[in-house]
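Backbone geometry:

***
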Amino acid sequence: MSNDISKGFLLVASLSAGYYQAAIKCAISLKDYYPDARITLFTHEAFFQEKHRYLFENIKLGIPVHSRAKLWCLDKTPYDITVYLDCDTEIWHEDITKIFDQIDDNDILITKIREYAGKGTFINQDEKMIYHCGVFMYRKSEKIINFMNDWWKNYLYQISTYPWPWKEYDEKMRPWDQFAFWKLLKEDTSGIKIGIFPDDARWNFVETYNENETKNPIVVYHYMIPSEVIHANAIQNPSGSATDIR
């Protein structure tokens, strides 16, 4: 891969200071194994602490206070090739330095959902979500930037439109950004090439996965932040109640 292509990582911490603290832990673990990693953080001015600036190449403030603010941020990446990491991830292995080599000729490289570790993947009787959107890599081309922008807009439509606008899909899909991602790909006419990471579990090993999902060292470990931590540190909306957290 040419050295003149910029490659970096993107972290997003919105809604709760619990996510910001997780993003800092993630960035520290990334720098431990990949000292030259270029990292951009999207977060709120109220969360950002100057003592953490050394971890990041870019700090982007003024993002939406939203449970899926990451979707708003994706098309604003400064990198030609971006690895998005959920902030509740940690880097566990030096192979993180090889992550950009995995993309090959794909536009998007992602990991797969494990049905036993999810809250429901069936969209209707015949179709199901297959992509886990907690860790993925993408190219900054016009069609992919447009796709990321549409992902955000379509998700907002999905969660706010009543009655549910798609009779062919189960309404239980309403809160899931993975559904908006899946639906956009299903309807894509631009020729987006999406691939799955080789031995994908090691690049996004969710804490509820079975140990036999990979025999190789885990590179990215994906844990769950306790909901009480998120709610206790959530930004308050004008009514005084915690902003909705999914």
Observations:
- The chain has one domain: 7-232.
- The longest strand covers residues 131-139.
- Residues 237-246 have pLDDT under 50 and may be disordered.
